[in-house]
Amino acid sequence: SAQDAAAGKTSFNKCLACHSIGEGAKNKVGPELNGLDGRHSGSAPDYNYSDANKNSGITWNKEQFLEYIKDPKAKIPGTKMAFAGIKNETEAQNVWAYISSFDKD
Ligand code: HEM
């Protein structure tokens, strides 16, 4: 819901050091996250992924994202994303509600 997405926007502050999303989003330490729903792992243009992320064979959707964000290194061993993850399921779902509200730009 819009309410969940609003909560997710606040939690996305944890991601902002490395990721941008929305109009004019650019790759930073991590890839920009526009259009993540349905996007193949490792496919943001001009971003230099690790082989682990690039070759993980994931198509991002809610289920895949929730599994990833609770423990990124468990889902993608060898990822260079230096982030412990979001352990709280509700918070993770809210972050997905926020992220998935952005289409490809
Ligand atoms: C990759 C989400 C926090 C750095 C990714 C990917 C997702 C993601 C979905 C894979 C993208 C793809 O395959 O195109 C998030 C979310 C975060 C978060 C939702 C906050 C809750 C962070 C933080 C950092 C970071 C804090 C930096 C300290 C990276 C890097 C990659 C990445 C470097 C590329 C990994 C690789 O190529 O191995 N992130 N991230 N992320 N993220 Fe994050």
Structure description:
It is a single chain. With 105 residues, this protein is mainly alpha-helical. The protein has one domain (2-99): Cytochrome c-like domain (Cytochrome Bc1 Complex, Chain D, domain 2, Orthogonal Bundle). 36% of the residues lie in helices and 0% in strands. It has five helices and no strands. The protein has helices at 2-11, 51-54, 62-70, 72-75, 89-99. The longest helix is centred in the last third of the chain and has 11 residues, at 89-99. It is globular, with a radius of gyration of 13 Å. Protoporphyrin IX containing FE binds at residues 14-15, 17-19, 29-31, 36, 41-42, 44, 49-50, 52-53, 69, 79-83, 86, 95.
Concise structural overview:
The protein has 105 residues and is mainly alpha-helical. It contains 5 helices and no strands. The chain has a single domain, classed as Cytochrome c-like domain (Cytochrome Bc1 Complex, Chain D, domain 2, Orthogonal Bundle), CATH 1.10.760.10.
